[in-house]
Amino acid sequence: MNQPFPIEYIVLPLVFAFVMLLIVVAAIERWRREKHRLDLQKAVLERVGSVKDLAEFLTTEQGQRFLTSLAPAQFRTHHRGLWSVRIGIVLLTVGLFLMVALHSLPLGGDPPRPLLLLLLLFIALGVGMLLSAALSFLIGRRLGLIGQGRSKDDAV
């Protein structure tokens, strides 16, 4: 009758809550950055008095940079590639750390099977994201979108 309380009933909801918290924080931060960028662009456009002034501004180097900054961040390929690397490293690190912690903690027997499956999922997702980023980088370089033949100012 005195069965121990399974640890996965505590750990799995905590891991899920932590992941959800990270997603919400990342979304709020992205929204805040995007709002700041749009406010800055709006202020620059308000300072331009006429169409002639705008045309003159857009022919300058600062105008070209302003035009490239108008593209939303999700359309910039190098940001997506770096995002994949970041997520992959975090998932791989969390999975490996929790796997080591799970095997080093004295739980009185074998580690819970659902928890091991969750940790293996983290590790697999991390490795998959890193492989995806590497493949995206190789394809982008092969197509000439990354690196060769593009100057620093041309990169979006």
Give an overview in words.
This protein has 156 residues and is mainly alpha-helical. It has two domains: 15-70; 75-156. It has five helices and no strands. The chain has helices at residues 8-47, 51-59, 61-69, 77-104, 113-142. α2 packs across α3 (61-69) and α4 runs antiparallel to α5. The radius of gyration is 23 Å and the shape is elongated. The N and C termini lie far apart (64 Å). Mean pLDDT is 76; it is low at 149-156.
List the keywords.
156 residues, mainly alpha, 2 domains, 0% strand, elongated
Helix-strand blueprint:
Layout lengths: L7 H40 L3 H9 L1 H9 L7 H28 L8 H30 L14
Largest sheet: none
Pairing-aware structural class of the strands and helices? mainly alpha
Overall domain count: 2
Instruction: Give the SSE string.
Output: HHHHH
Shape: elongated
Portion in beta strands: under 5%
Low-confidence stretches: 149-156
What value does the Rg take, in angstroms?
23 Å
> What is the count of β-strands?
0
Q: What's the short version?
A:
The protein is mainly α and 156 residues long.
